[in-house]
Write a structure and sequence with these properties.
In chain A, 38% of the residues lie in helices and 22% in strands. Chain A has 383 residues and is α/β, with parallel strands linked by helices. In chain A, strands 2, 3, 4, 5, 6, 7, 8 and 14 form an 8-stranded mixed sheet that branches. Chain A has a 5-stranded mixed sheet with strand order 11-13-12-15-16, with helices on both faces. A two-stranded antiparallel ribbon of chain A has the order 1-9. Chain B is 35% helix and 16% strand. Chain B has an 8-stranded mixed sheet with strand order 2-1-3-4-6-5-8-7, sandwiched between helices. Classes of the chains: A alpha/beta (383), B alpha/beta (276). The interface between A and B is large, with 48 and 44 residues. Strand 10 (227-229) of chain A pairs parallel with strand 2 of chain B, so a sheet runs across the interface.
Amino acid sequence: MADRRLMQGNEACAEGAIAAGVRFFAGYPITPSTEIAESMAKLLPKYGGTFVQMEDEIASMGAILGASLAGAKVMDATSGPGFSLKQELIGYAAVAEIPCVLVNVQRVGPSTGQPTAPSQGDVMQVRWGTHGDHPMIALSPWSVRETFDLTVMAVNYAERFRTPVILLMDEIVGHLRENVTLPTAEEIAIYPRRKPTKTRAEGYEPFAPEADLVPNVADFGNGYHVHVTGLIHDETGFPVGSPKVTQESIHRLHQKINRAGNEIIHTEEYFMEDADFAVVSFGGTARTVYEAVSEARELGYKVGMLRLVTIWPFADEAIARLAAKVKAITVAELNYGQIINEVQRAAGGVCPVEFCGKYDMRTFEPPEILDAIKKMCEGGGAN
Amino acid sequence: MSEILRSYEKYFRRNRLPHLWCPGCGNGIAMKAIVQAIEKNPEFNQDNTVIVSGIGCSSRASGYMDFDTLHTAHGRAIPFATGVKLANPKLNVIVITGDGDCTAIGGNHFIHGCRRNIDLTVVLFNNNIYGMTGGQASPMTPTGKKATTAPYGSVDRTFDACSLAQAAGATYVARSTAFHVNHLTDMIAGGFNNKGFSFIEALVQCPTAYGRRNKMGAPAEMLKWMRDNAVMKAAWDKLPDEKKTPEKFPIGLLYETNAVDYDTAYESVIELAGGK
């Protein structure tokens, strides 16, 4: 795989999934994510895996969860309208602790919205879309190569934490074509499917947490006779109508991810060494921000940028450190204002946080971000 | 004191019993018919068979059965089962569902499972009502019968799930009742032998949420109603139309055909792609 290839973000996602060991994909056609399903349909049978086009978005989510329980590493891909439909079974995967990756290549919403146009309007739905309290891991790439890398990371996190992981792409990166060199198999670390360390005779309980609070649920077909349900259950996997078990299980679902903490919260900083001001961004928009910050530097503005790679859990500490260092922060995102609320919360009022949003179906142009940077810097952080 | 177990009792998680179904419910009869059909099949055992269910009274059966079991979301048993089967075709996959679960919220999955001819055996426990939520009308509540959401009698027309399965592409379609328990077991056993989508409708009595509201009498009376109105397929085919009254219905193997199942078809895809 060490050759240099021109490829689309969506294709890189499929390549990353194969490299990470995904051998089952169920999907439903939807713009702008369809190329992921098309690529998987072509690639999976070459690796002895299975691609199935299901009758709807809910069914494709159900199929990957069944396949995961039967031992396969799994993925499904969609966009806004499909992502809304999948919320039911994202919650199921969270409570039943089923490893799976769901890709959302964002487009303009609400509803059918602007099907072919970019947006970053699903940030909060990723976090809170399914009912009930649940943790969430979401990663957002800004380049074709990073789409490959974060797909591998998403599969690894899904397996390690036995939880749904969302790869939060956007139409910009999904349809972007870049010349990339993909890593070789030897360069990629793979987290293997967790296996039971006890037999039934030794008192194995499928949902008993290990030291990292994650259970080693046996794959179907290995004689463990595991029961999996979306009802709140105890360590045996069977439903219990107990306040204590309900509280403990919801707490553990959160803690298994919270405890991993900064290990899974990735951010990147550019031009930050001597910066007095910063722009926070993510995904495809961060590309425009990088260009605008570079231009601002040439004009003498002491501005840098922080890019959120992990969207959820939110990078509270990185933002708090940033707020302590700079005079003001601007949040650039392709929506009416979503991640800015998290940045403001994490900044804790230490510095002003300004908003640069766009929701007219077009990507940002560098001058728009540059104007926001000038306004922020010239305001001196005093407003 | 040692207990004498009946041969099929090993298929149950005895520490999860007694079940939560009402006294007189027919679900236990259908669940027992499934394990007796498993017992008859030399290729099915507790380690290579997965039970997948949806949500509702019927679907609580999976928790009582000592296999790998998957109690999914409402209506979604067939998609989950499709994933289990395709990821590991060596597993025998049985779906337990109800009339609301399968033909209302899961209706799209049901017809597409049939169309795909995926190798599953789907047993629909048809109690003609949403029992778990207290007696609302389902797509299989007969027209005119009362439900909490049809207090004046249902005006909805009724799905014939067997005809639906046949039309959608299922390759084995059968019906039986909780009264005809040995026959029901045979119908399920026949489904296991079909490599493809097998559908068995098991009519079961719900004395609590359906029978009582419709003055159908005690559970035994509801079972007698099944005895008196079910007609074996061979006899049904000879029955003159004027004797096919709305209450009468055929039971038995209603339809069977040969078609390639999805796993087998996909093997040729892997071969064409040059996969392992």
